[in-house]
Amino acid sequence: MRSRLLARHFLSQFVENDAAPEIDRHQVLALVAAGVITVPLFATVFMSVKYLMQPLQTPAWTQVTAVTDRMIFCATSMLVSAIVATLEWDTLTLSSRDSAILGVLPISHLEIVRAKVVSLVTFATSFVVALNALPTLLHPTVMVANLSLNLLMLAPLIVARGFSTMAAGAFGFACVLAIREGLYLLIGRRRFERVSDLVRSALLFSLLLLLLLVPSRLSGRHDWMFERNAGPVLQRPVGWFVAMDIVMAAKVLDDVPRPDLSTWEAEQDDLLVTQYRNGLPYMATQALGGAGVLLVLLLVSSTTYLWNARRLHVLPEGRGGPAIVPASAVTNVLANVVARRPAKRAGLVFLGQTVLGSPVHRIYLIASVAIGAALLLGMAPAGTGSPGLPVRASQLAAQTLLLTAIIAGFRATIRTSADPRATWLFGVADTGNLAAFRNGVRVGTLTAVTATVLMLVPLHAAAWGVWIASMHALNGAALGWLLVEIACGDVEQPLMRTIPPNDALNTVGAVFLGAIVICVVILARIERAVLTSSLASVVFALVMAASAMWVRHLHERDHRAATIVVSV
Amino acid sequence: MAESGILEARHLVKRFYGHAAVSDVSFVLKPGEILGCLGPNGSGKSVTLKMLTGLIEPTRGSVLYSGVDVTGGDVEFRRRFGYVPEEPHLYPFLSGRGYLELVAGLRDLPTNVARPKINALLERFGLGEAAEQSISGYSKGMKQKTLLIAALLHDPDVVILDEPESGLDVGSILVVRELLRVLAVRGKAILYSSHIVEIVERLCTRVVVLSAGRVIVDGSVDHVRTVTRSGSLEEAFATLSAQHPHALASEIADIVTAHA
């Protein structure tokens, strides 16, 4: 009874964690829960259409064609589970708060740890099942809809899919747990607390980027799965679980009769049969290897977890020394260079400290940078434009999309209070100089945008030459400034007050997104046209800068009017 | 069992990364007694209290409960004491009632006993209307009251309080002070750590003064005043902790007004 109460309490901590903003946590959680169910459902329907449209579907064609879908399902399950584990980073183990509260109650240490493990396993299992349940039921069913299969034959296909995707999810979750606990064990609690945020952020960024690249990188044929070929390194773990599915489903599909085919079609199908049957022994080895790796990973993560939890830690390691990333030093140096006025400096330093110190704000920025990086990687294919200008409009648009994503992240960041409980401090400290504070926040955002543009210059220079790269950077910086003024200039009290998202966001948001893409494409075409002349490029940048100043003037006028109304 | 105490700290030592937070602390707490624990910031009061409750394991020394060694925490001992920590450790996403029901459940209190008790205590402490609110919206005083109720819910023999008056309004401080007196009369042993010398002087029957992790005086309030030749416990405390409040206050005022 007591253990169940404790396990239930720990389970609620996974939902009420620090990754969602406190003020609209339940709204965010409801959105995430809806997304976990509906997004895989839509993706499944989208991916299943090709089976229904295939007039002469054979078992061999199904096995070979379904590899891509299986890759996407397994990769998504693995990455989303790993992302959730990373978001729950601090909740995965007992915190010093848990120890302080529970350590004085008459519960044995073993009982506390057991309840935590039970809640962790329950949470991970429930999440992985919720994520994969609908695709597991729907996709295999639609995949063989045109084949002569009865329900008894369909059941093993569903079981195979469920087993492989859930094993992939368990692998993703256990990987993050093993990284966290392994690091803790290796460097000790004191050092772990210093690097924990950095590792968590890096992990979250990498996982989000990989997840966003799944559709583009995993579409297409995966012939390497049927050959004695290890395949791309990052896809290998996914391959283990896909192999499990194929091997488990092979027995059923082999027994399914082939429809009547013409001689040529039969010959083509025979080639597919040979390809996949020859690959089965190797795939069985891969599946066994994957199962072995998963078991070892589960063993390692659970052993290190239990070893690290052998003692309750009541005191936070406040004496652990300075943070690995000297955040305050970096922002202070920057503030000394670009912001001398105290209020402006306060805005800049506060933005830097909040972004680096608050989990919610950090997640906003990590997510936006990951989206931007995925767009950049997806839209910068090899190849050149016309002979006169070795660059294509889509390649120019990639930088703008990256900047748009980052600025959207900053917009979400500054529209969220750094700490709702500390907001009164601004009311006390405000000497009517909020414009300078806003300016400091704006300078911080602009610095991030400019740094991003400068980081891209060497890449662009290598691809297109120094002159085009320099002009593109100049245009990017000016365009970035305009976007910062449009997206962030209307926020009257940045980082002070949480502005809840618009209720109509799910309808208006789609229109906005479409408008942004159209504007970016148009701007990229204009930029490509002006890149032919240095004068035209400079004029383009000046027009963007003048527009930015005009937008800023409009926003400041609105803010002044609002202040006067409040004063009256 | 020395001096028939219910709880005894015996030569407690605690080191953090080579730094001694508590060097040598010994005292005995008897049933029906309110023992005050005084000391300046960093003197080792909170660490000593955490060692007594088993939250921190001492580097050396032992904790005895009714003569039995309970060093590092013992489940049976934990059934018999209530603890109000210095920092308001609470789950902010729970409501006040939710937190107290969780504590009651984990203390194995039957629901039919716990529910009415929680309701009655919430009402008496003035939290009745806020009982369903999330703790994240509570003021410091409300959090402190929630911690006090959680510490007393299971009728403990020993009550350990680390600055319980923190954040409480004057009325609530008076209620808590009287409550502790009544509990002591009913045989409970109370260990009361505080910065507020005046409260300790009025409330406690005996005082332990800590400085730099050591007990420098252990005796009745009168005994402490006599030893230090002071008119009040406040003066005695300043003498014992070698503080010169007037000189220090002048220095701070000089810094504050330096650029005015």
Rg measurement of chain B, Å? 19 Å
Q: Ranges of chain A with pLDDT <50 over ≥5 residues?
A: 317-322
Shape of chain B: globular
Number of domains of chain A: 2
Classified by CATH, the class of the domain at 7-86 and 158-167 and 191-257 in chain B is Alpha Beta
Tell me the CATH architecture of the domain at 7-86 and 158-167 and 191-257 in chain B: 3-Layer(aba) Sandwich
Percent range for β-strand residues of chain A: under 5%
Which strand order does the major sheet of chain B show? Answer: 6-7-8-3-9-10
In round numbers, the mean pLDDT of chain A is 85
* Strand content range of chain B: 15-25%
CATH H-level homologous superfamily name of the domain at 7-86 and 158-167 and 191-257 in chain B: P-loop containing nucleotide triphosphate hydrolases
What's the short story on this structure?
The complex is a heterodimer of chains A (568) and B (260). With 568 residues, chain A is mainly α. Chain A has helices spanning 2-15, 25-52, 59-87, 96-102, 109-143, 151-218, 236-254, 263-308, 327-338, 342-357, 359-379, 393-414, 424-429, 434-464, 466-488, 505-530, 534-567.
